[in-house]
What we know:
The complex is a heterodimer of chains A (114) and B (112).
Chain A: E1 5-7, E2 10-13, E3 19-24, E4 31-37, E5 44-50, E6 53-57, E7 65-68, E8 75-79, E9 88-95, E10 104-105, E11 109-113
Parallel strand pairs in A: 2-11
Antiparallel strand pairs in A: 1-3, 3-8, 4-5, 4-9, 5-6, 7-8, 9-10, 9-11
Chain B: E1 5-7, E2 10-14, E3 19-24, E4 32-37, E5 44-49, E6 55-58, E7 61-65, E8 71-76, E9 85-92, E10 100-102, E11 106-111
Parallel strand pairs in B: 2-11
Antiparallel strand pairs in B: 1-3, 3-8, 4-5, 4-9, 6-7, 7-8, 9-10, 9-11
Amino acid sequence: DTGVSQNPRHKITKRGQNVTFRCDPISEHNRLYWYRQTLGQGPEFLTYFQNEAQLEKSRLLSDRFSAERPKGSFSTLEIQRTEQGDSAMYLCASSLLGLREKLFFGSGTQLSVL
Amino acid sequence: TQLLEQSPQFLSIQEGENLTVYCNSSSVFSSLQWYRQEPGEGPVLLVTVVTGGEVKKLKRLTFQFGDARKDSSLHITAAQPGDTGLYLCAGPNTGTASKLTFGTGTRLQVTL
């Protein structure tokens, strides 16, 4: 068990470009979450999957954002036409559905939009 | 919308001192979790408190859940430089219990 893995760790892009992040959850975990964290704030929920089904999306997630988990394993988060306001740490977490669900977070992808 | 307010926002203390961090809400939470986050890393779960009035200890850290389940506190005894980090409380959203609402965080720095 190597924990939740996120790639890349850092991404610098120009405004208007598209970016894609990848998250590999802990192998037996059936739930996967995406959060966004800006400097000095706590993480904010973006979306989550149970297996391959995307069950909820936050209103923070504009139509420029799309997330997938095609086979119920790894997930990707794509941001199209990036804006400077998208600069943040994007965190992925996974868990095993249960009474006392525990989230295990990855190290995040730090996005800087210039 | 359930909000979690943490205080203080920043805390700088010397090694050996005690401190308490607070997490408050006007909403009732079925449980609250505490995380510690180091720079450039994701949050790591420290503890989950479930029952009103519950007290949990993790070495030098003592966590308490308020009787009304609207607030929680984290007390650190004899702080060490390794305790430095961002402390976050989080609770499940009543609308969707699977997602967490995080507090604003308390940034702790412990110096020698």
